[in-house]
Design a protein that fits this description.
The protein is mainly β and about 280 residues long. Helices cover about 0% and strands about 35% of the residues.
Length: about 280
């Protein structure tokens, strides 16, 4: 068997899997009380003679030194799953393999982002349960290491607010915002983990506000904060009226001799990403 360069192997056993229509995703895990050693999962595709590495996992955040991995393929694509020890010196042992086939979320990849029409009070129900980790997503302030789904919307020349503050949100979410005419050229705008706007449904919701330029394309990536892998959520996206002095170039002039308290508000202000740290 010809193995991919750079993929070191240790003693292990193999399983042969084929992707099917309507069940193009796989979850493999050794997170079982039958597992007695430090496992690693490696997945390859090929003909059994020449293989290409698809992905691997050593320690899953939810079960210590046991392993869990999800991946997807095209209908009829053949995969080889190897269960082995982390190092050549890792003691061998027994394991319990949990294997599940599932249909990957339609908006799992940026190119298939679900289109949103921002509207006050409108809720989009989503889930990362059947999504995968997007290793191609550009870094945006926070690590992206859990399953994620994508959304797309057009800017209207006003401020936008996206939030997972909803009663149907079941896990600690994060939202990243990107701007660009295409997925491959999109750039990070901002990201948020725990909402800086009070959420009546809990502290794990995410809320991000940004200025959405008219006619520009924006992508939203919804994912989880480690170690929580996935869950369901309610997503709202709406236009908000930012303060007139939301930008430095529009700073409000104050009379230094005024001598009175100046009223103001940052309720609908945007995060300013281009100001030097101070």
């Amino acid at each position: 068997m010809k193995m991919p360069e750079g993929c070191a192997l240790t003693a292990g056993v193999w399983y042969d899997l084929v992707s099917e229509e309507g069940g193009n995703g796989f979850r493999a895990s050794t997170c079982s009380n039958l597992t007695t050693f430090d496992t690693k999962l490696s997945v390859y595709t090929g003909d059994g003679v020449s293989l290409r590495c698809v992905g691997f996992n050593d320690d899953d955040a939810r079960c210590g030194t046991k392993s869990a991995l999800s991946w997807k393929g095209q209908p009829g694509e053949r995969f080889f799953l190897q269960i082995h020890g982390f190092w050549a010196t890792t003691p061998t042992g027994n394991f319990g393999l949990l294997l599940e086939r599932f249909a990957v979320a339609e908006n799992d990849e940026c190119e298939n982002a679900q289109v949103l029409e921002p509207a006050a009070g409108q809720v989009t129900l989503g889930s990362t349960v059947n999504a995968l980790i997007d290793s191609k997503a550009p870094f945006c302030y926070l690590p992206i290491s859990t399953p994620s789904v994508w959304y797309r919307l057009m800017g209207t020349g006003t401020s936008m607010r996206a939030s997972t503050c909803h009663i149907l949100t079941t896990f600690d979410t994060r939202i990243a915002v990107y701007e660009g005419s295409a997925c491959t050229s999109s750039k990070c705008v901002y990201a948020n983990s725990d909402s800086n706007v009070r959420c009546e449904h809990g502290d794990d919701a995410s809320t991000v506000t940004w200025f959405a330029g008219g006619g520009k394309t924006y992508y939203l990536l919804v994912y989880g904060a480690p170690p929580e892998a996935s869950g369901d959520f309610g997503l709202t996206v709406e236009q908000v009226g930012a303060p007139q002095n939301d930008l430095c170039m529009d700073a409000h002039v104050i009379d230094s001799a005024l001598g009175l308290a100046e009223p103001g508000s940052i309720v609908d202000a945007n995060q300013d990403m281009f100001v030097p740290f101070c």
